[in-house]
Specification:
Elements (H helix, E strand, L loop, with lengths): L2 E11 L5 E11 L3 E5 L6 H8 L7 E6 L2 E2 L4 H6 L1 E4 L11 H11 L6 H10 L15 H13 L5 E5 L7 H16 L3 E6 L2 H7 L2 E6 L2 E7 H8 L1 E8 L15 E4 L4 E7 L7 H10 L4 E8 L2 H11 L15
Helix pairs in contact: 3-5
Length: 321
């Protein structure tokens, strides 16, 4: 089975009457890193909380590693490790006791060697006998990850893993996520940071207003980023695109005053020279040329705005959350 998670027609209306998810369909592939990107209140946490069995769906179905999350809750839940947004550790426990307890809660037999490996991978081994409350904020976050990995899940959810963490810890987290993927763990992370999705993900999903508005390979999105536009400001407005240049990807804007040519900037032949020669032959004169390149951020903001919502743009890593 290639898809480790199958989400079909998932809808959530909270008791308040607020609809947080609207018929979401999503398949997560085994072994991938999937980034779920969306502005505040988009429904990211609701979606992963339902998959993890913390919130009940109103309608729709979720199957995790072949187990229906409602009918076969325990088996589905055991396949998952969840790193929540909020710190949820018992502050008076030691790091070691926290991990041991968490593993036991999933009914897994004690395995000191596994817990040691997890702690060493997260640079927490030296802290294993310390009480959680004595750790720094960054270390507390690492403990959350260690705890989520204590029962050897095949799937790890990270809900905004790097919100409010410093650059060094963010780099460490990214490194750790890559190592986990290399060991076969499927990873789903939610983020506001486009940069994080760009850096980490194999595929990116964009959610807004409870609707999944795009799911695409990151590589394909990056190709779109390689798309450039050339705006040709015409001397005289055109009513329609001339037949002689019908083969180019052209659009008329601003009541025919601007001819916009979209091309692949990564290609050797952009076609610009030939396009301009053809326009000249047709007697179409221009007064200015202007080129622009779209970024993943532009694509994202465009998508979110096209969805008809008034929302703030996502942040670049490093900006305040
Ligand atoms: N228990 C609840 N009762 C009512 N409404 C809720 C509840 N939990 C969440 N919501 C609403 O559902 C919407 C989606 O919330 P959710 O936490 O899933 O968004 P999010 O994308 O994770 O946002 P953020 O990036 O801010 O964490 C929000 O408008 C939120 O106010």
């Amino acid at each position: 089975m290639n898809d480790i998670i199958q989400v079909t027609g998932l809808t959530k209306t909270y008791a308040s009457g607020f609809q947080a998810l609207d018929k979401v369909d999503l398949n997560i592939r085994r072994g991938e890193i999937f980034a779920l990107l969306g502005p505040n209140g988009a429904g990211k946490t609701t979606l992963i909380s339902i998959i993890c069995g913390i919130v009940n769906p109103t309608a729709g179905r979720v199957v995790v590693d072949g187990h229906d999350i409602v009918r076969d809750y325990r088996a589905a839940r055991t396949a998952i490790g969840l790193v929540p947004q909020e710190l949820t550790n018992n502050m008076f426990d030691t790091v070691w006791a926290t991990l041991k307890l968490s593993r036991g809660l999933f009914g897994k037999p004690a395995d000191a060697a596994h817990l040691e490996k997890v702690l060493r991978d997260l640079s927490l081994w030296d802290k294993r006998n310390e009480k959680i409350m004595s750790l720094s904020g960054g270390m507390k976050r690492r403990v959350l990850i260690a705890k989520a990995l204590s029962h050897e899940p095949d799937i790890l959810f990270l809900d905004e893993p790097t919100a409010g963490v410093d650059v060094e810890l963010r780099r460490d987290m990214w490194e750790m996520v890559r190592k986990l993927r290399a060991s076969g763990v499927t990873i789903i992370l939610t983020t506001h940071y486009i940069e994080e999705a760009e850096e980490m993900a194999d595929r990116i999903g964009v959610i807004n207003g409870g609707k999944l508005i795009l799911v695409e390979e990151k590589a394909a999105l990056m190709r779109k980023m390689g798309t450039k536009q050339l705006s040709i400001h015409l001397q005289q407005p055109l009513e329609q695109i001339p037949v002689a240049v019908a083969d180019y990807q052209l659009a008329l804007e601003q009541e025919g005053h601007i001819l916009v040519y979209t091309f692949d900037a990564l290609k050797e032949q952009t076609g610009i020279a030939e396009l301009l020669r053809t326009l000249a032959r047709e007697g179409i004169e221009f007064k200015d040329l202007h080129s622009s390149q779209s970024s993943l951020e532009d694509i994202f903001v465009g998508l979110v705005h096209n969805a008809g919502e008034s929302v703030s743009a996502p942040q670049r890593a490093g900006e305040a959350s």
